[in-house]
Amino acid sequence: MKKVKLLMGLFVVASSTIVAQTLNDAIKLTTNEQYGLADAAFVKLIQTQPNSGEYYFFYGENLFKNDEIDLANAMYQKGSDVNPTNPISYVGLGKVQWYKGQSADAKANFFKATTLAAGKNATVLMKIAEAYTNAPTKNLVDAFTLLAQAAKLEPKNAEIYILTGDAYLEQNDATKAIENYEKAGLLDPKSPRALLKQGQVWNRARNFPLAIEIYKKARLIDSTFAPAYRELAEIYLRASQFANAAYNAKRYLQLNNDCSAKSQYSGILNQAKQYKESVDAGKEALLCTPINFYTYRYLAYSQFEIADYPGGLENMNNFFTKAPPEKIIVQDYEYRAKLLSKTGKDSLAILDYKKALELQPEKVEYNGDIANAYIKMKKYPEAIAAYKMKMDKGKANANDYYGLTRAYYYSKDFINADSSAVLIIKAQPELALGYMWRAKANSQLDPKNEKWLAKPYYELFISKVKPEDTEKSKKDLIEAYTYVGVYYMNNKNVCEAKTYFKKIAELDATSANAKKFLESAEAKKCP
Q1: Number of domains in the chain
Q2: Residue 2 domain flag
Q3: Residue 40's domain spans which residues?
Q4: Which residues contact 431 (CB under 8 A, 6 or more apart)?
Q5: Quick one: which of 68, 162, 456, 502 has the most CB atoms within 10 Å?
Q6: How high is the mean pLDDT of the chain?
């Protein structure tokens, strides 16, 4: 309600920088994704004709395309209030209902619109068809019927053929989609939209070079056509050409420096792995009023990547608070879970990982994340169950086997800990870690060193540690040298034992055990 009041307040004082424009000029701003400028243009238009239902409808369209569905609905309703005989406002009201799954109410408003139009208003037919095509729930049969009727009324209207192409694309008929987009281009060769649509088809078909070529042609027709730069940025992202992606995203922002564009810019920089720049852009977007809720998502994702976990968690929570439920995706739960885990809130992280798994059951990797969180909480049986769930799907890796080994080990199930360590070695035979955990498990299985079961695994561990990894492996190396050194002491091989205790002293000059043994063995002459 507060946002609606703020928006309606714009009708009292419009920006002095926006000159009076025609309705087509304002619609073009919307098409060009310059939503902020379009807002101000519609305010100006409504000031000149406050009873124009058409002005309110297209203002609502601008808001709808900028994900402000409730505000859009308020504009559609205002249009029907001030001009109840204009059919177009009922199309807007019906569209919101159709998107929200209120199909009966939506069809009632669509029927009212078509009845008032009396078969003479192509825009009414086109806009209903557009809703049927673009909404999550499709009605393509009626969309094609409505577009055919519109074409009879206005056979040279390029927009009709663009919408027809969209409907064919939803049917996965790319050939007919291209045919209609090409026809639209012939009818309106100065419009870049038909080319943009063709590029989207080739992008969808993963023919990236052709898509890029067509987007560039659209840019040549109108160098201020912002969507062409956005599409280029996105396709360069898919091709991992991050510099080109960032360049086109920046150009898009220059053409469309409104709140939505600032938020998109942050998102593109995030995908281009320019996380610091993404955070900076996101913080600038937060200065907008109202704040685009996507901004919180992009900020949180990028803050996680630069290790600003408290800031990322705050913004991720803001996103969940502000975003409509239908806009929340699996990755949102995943990132919040990771941020929660990094800030010591593992029990809450597990809930989000489980929610992500419910939404995307095939992504069994989340079971590994759940297991890791349980290990941090020292809930080892739960961790074991989660790892097994992941392994049942055949998605386990060396890290999972390592986690499972630790869970069994700390549960004092040393037999299974040893078996799991074998899996680490099978997955990565050159990794020293697996041999260390086999050594640890076998040491516990032979606590009195009656059989010295751990010796071969400690020796293998020592042999697998690379020279450059000596420092980070120091603690485990000392453990291994100590075990093997003691073995040789017990077998009266002082010289061999001395070799291992010298290695301990080299790693830790303060080691009392090494010092004591070396002093006692000083008189022993070894080759």
Answers
A1: 2
A2: yes
A3: 1-86
A4: 398, 424, 425, 464
A5: 162
A6: 91
Q: CB of 403 within 8 A of CB of 434? A: no
Among 86, 114, 135, which residue terminates a domain?
86
CATH, residue 5: 1.25.40.10
Written as six digits, the tokens of 310 are 């408290």
Cite the DSSP H helix spans in 135-291.
140-153, 158-170, 174-187, 193-204, 208-221, 226-238, 242-255, 259-271, 275-285
pLDDT digits (tens, 9 = 90+) for 200-213: 999 888 898 999 99
Phi-psi region of 273 (alpha: psi -120 to 50; beta: other; left: phi over 0): left
* pTM for the model: 0.69
124 within 8 A of 88, measured Cβ to Cβ: yes
Distance of alpha carbon 236 from alpha carbon 525, whole angstroms: 69
Q: Is the pLDDT of residue 7 over 60?
A: no
Out of 35, 58, 86, pick the residue that ends a domain. 86
Distance CA 116, CA 329 (A): 40
310 belongs to a structural domain = no
Quick check: 212 and 232 in contact, CB under 8 A? yes
Q: Is residue 292 part of a domain?
A: no
Q: How far apart are CA 74 and CA 63, in angstroms?
A: 10
Per residue in 144-194, pLDDT (tens digit) is 999 999 999 999 999 999 999 999 999 999 999 999 999 999 999 988 999
